[in-house]
Amino acid sequence: MSGQNVWTHKGTFLLAAVGSAVGLGNLWRFPYLTGENGGGAFILIYALTIFAVGIPILIAEIMLGRNSRQSPIMGMRHLTKTHGTSRAWETIGWLGAASAFLILSFYSVIAGWAIHYTGLMLTGSLVGADAQTISDGFDALLAAPGLMTLYHTIFIAASALIVGMGIHKGIESGLRIMMPALFVILLVVLAYGVVNGDIGAAASFLFTFNIADLSLEGWLQAMGQSFFTLSLGMGAIMAYGAYMPSDVSLTRTAFAVAIVDTAVAMVAGLAIFSLVFGAGLETGQGPGLMFVTLPLAFAEMPFGALVGGVFFILVLGAAISSSISLIEPVAAFLVERFDITRPQAVTIMVIAAWAMGLLTVVSFNIWAEGTIFHSLFGRSAFEFIELLTNIFMPVGGLLIALFAGWALTQSEVMKELGSSVTWFKLWRFLVRFVAPAAVAFVFLRTIPQVDGYLIPTLGALLMIGAFAASQRWLKKPRQTT
To answer: Which domain holds residue 68?
Structure first.
């Protein structure tokens, strides 16, 4: 990779990583999980897991990217050669690229819904609408494959345009405008919620420390959320790490990414739930909160149409900053491996992901039931693709931790971390033992049953194989050159 492919500003990696981490999940999933699972108690478990699992793997993934200065797949090929380890470790790169590709395919469809709602809000179509009208409107959108395909196409094309323009002109310039704008919009929506909503109820829903409400399931969700929110194991962080200047502190950057990501989720939670409680509505989970409950809250409030439109622009911005990070790992690989131009690589990646996304589009209507996916796996095509990513990402994250913890030499890691011996020892202990065990535990507990035993068994074998094989792969004698 040429020297030109390094971020021109030291802070760009932080913006890029935060952009990748801050997505649709921050805006609806995290606040909802927090409120349902004991508020402050959930946040405490989440923070501990971010420190013990999320940050060590985040540092490991950035380190592998910066060490190789290549795309995840080619980078892992390079690292296995230079470290004399088994080529089986290249699986890390392939798992990351596969996860990024699969997530982009459905993420683009769901993000496309925000285009629809931005239009509805800004044209004032929902002013004064009742709950039934808004709920029927959402159902009508899901029942219209043509409309969903149009939005999916617009969204993925916009993301492709940014990545296709290159690392500096496209991704870097885009993020430096987009991320500060997102933070400003989020604060505007929060201020609106304070004035027109019920900020007290939102704060008590999110921050009341109630350990009794935190079940084992809640613990697992806190641990799972801390892993998924940082975009670990899907190639994006490794791809962005390859462009990170050598003199930027890995440790400080990783902590900053985790703190900003969590702060955005908290502020989003306060903003969203102050509006929801202010309008006397229920805290529904998932898409329902974003696309039914919130539009209803905006419909009943002064200047709601305008602020609602601005809010959905925020949702779109957060989604685009995540989707460009999903295109990059595969596009960078195609450029390096096949020596094609960046626009050509991005076009190939995006057309393939767009076509795969059509499976998600029809999962909500034409193929809502009775397909081969339902008969084989008991779920729709969209749910099956999502399930695959929920397997690939943790396995990828686990392998990243093991490779960085066991294959990289102490001197390499010390040079990259550039910090105290105490922090090095703590990081290495966390990345070698604590993070892999925690990821394996969450993975095996939360993977849903398919045909009773198929997926959990497969997952268990993958995990055991990864642990056992890592020891054998790493014992391979280092080749002298």
So the answer is: 11-475
